[in-house]
Amino acid sequence: LYEESRGRETWLQASSEVTTSLLSGADPREVLSVVAARAREMSDADLVQLLLPDASGRALVVEVAEGEDAESMLGTTLDLATTLAGEVFTHAESRSNPDMKSAPYPGSPLRRLGYGPGLFVPLGNAPAVRGVLALAKRSGRLPFSGAHQQMLQAFAGQAAIALELAEARRDAERLGLLEDRDRIARDLHDVVIQRLFATAMTLMSTLRLVERPEAGKRLQHAIDELDGTIRQIRSSIFALQGSHDDAPASLRGQIVDLVEGAGSHLGFMPGLRMEGQIDTVVTEPAAEQLVAVLREALSNVVRHSHATRAEVSVEVSGGELTLVVTDDGVGVGEAGRRSGLRNIEERAGRLGGTTELESPEEGGTRLRWQIPV
């Protein structure tokens, strides 16, 4: 009776500590660490683990561990089909085993490490089980009692609440991020593009009043630059509106990510222009090849060109997907031309396309890669 009363007192203290952490907005991982430590204390276990499902939902990963072998267990992946933890997660029912080292679960690390009594409690109820609380004692020790199991089931419920609150916070942050993206996209479209367009129109009307040819050429160049800037902003708007953290990245989004990644290595941001129905008519195989070619082309610019300016153009028009990458670097020698083109040409050839690599008279390199869509 004394031990049972002491256990209940420990459980009440632990529950109060977890509740306080939850209400104070503590980091979910800190709360789960408290859960694991207090679960070990109230059950006198040698090892306590908190296992959460991986991204695929077909395995559990040890995210938090307390006690013996804790450090080596962190990050361990457990298959749902061959472990007792997986069985508990799948059926949302607590299970215990008096001797894990002889249990019929070949995928269990507790069996491999020679542990004795084991207790596994689901975090939450079906159908929303969020993980498993796993406890183990060394071989030869007494099994976990029914009182322990009852207390730990209630305690595991608090851990499930911590995970649910963390998910709600992530959803709120994701919603705020998407709202910010929509607002930025609206501002770019309604304010920035309109002002640039008005400026370009003013310059075009002024162009007719300019008599000196050289001044006219410079003015026309400025108008062309404004047009290019408007196209780039529109591409950015598409990328902002098409980006979702919980969905696969769109082709436009992948292109933007690659260009931005190259910019961080080059020391300047390459220009980017995207036109046409890139995210709707380009098939998945074509998109994969385009991304691979763009990655290789930008990698060559970063490593070999010594460029101070680069431009990327992706366009869908007339049943063709065309990628053009230009830079003002040192150009490509004959050996580099052959080796650099081989993979890129093969990727185009698989889809019935063509590749051109040239060094313009003004210097640098121009890659043109085109496939039918």
Spell out the key features of this protein.
Beta-Lactamase, Heat Shock Protein 90, 2 domains, five-stranded mixed beta sheet, 11 strands, 373 residues, alpha+beta, six-stranded antiparallel beta sheet, single chain
Care to describe what's here?
This protein has helices at 2-23, 28-43, 70-73, 84-91, 109-112, 146-207, 213-242, 251-266, 278-281, 284-305, 334-350; strands spanning 47-53, 59-67, 77-79, 95-97, 115-123, 131-138, 271-275, 310-317, 320-327, 354-358, 365-372. It has 373 residues and is of the alpha+beta class. It folds into 2 domains: 2-171, Beta-Lactamase, CATH 3.30.450.40; 248-373, 2-Layer Sandwich (Heat Shock Protein 90), CATH 3.30.565.10. Strands 3-2-1-6-5-4 form a 6-stranded antiparallel beta sheet, with helices on both faces. A hairpin with a 5-residue loop joins strand 1 (47-53) and strand 2 (59-67). The radius of gyration is 30 Å and the shape is elongated. The N and C termini lie far apart (77 Å).
What does this entry show, briefly?
It contains eleven helices and eleven strands. It is of the alpha+beta class. It folds into two domains: 2-171, Beta-Lactamase; 248-373, Heat Shock Protein 90.
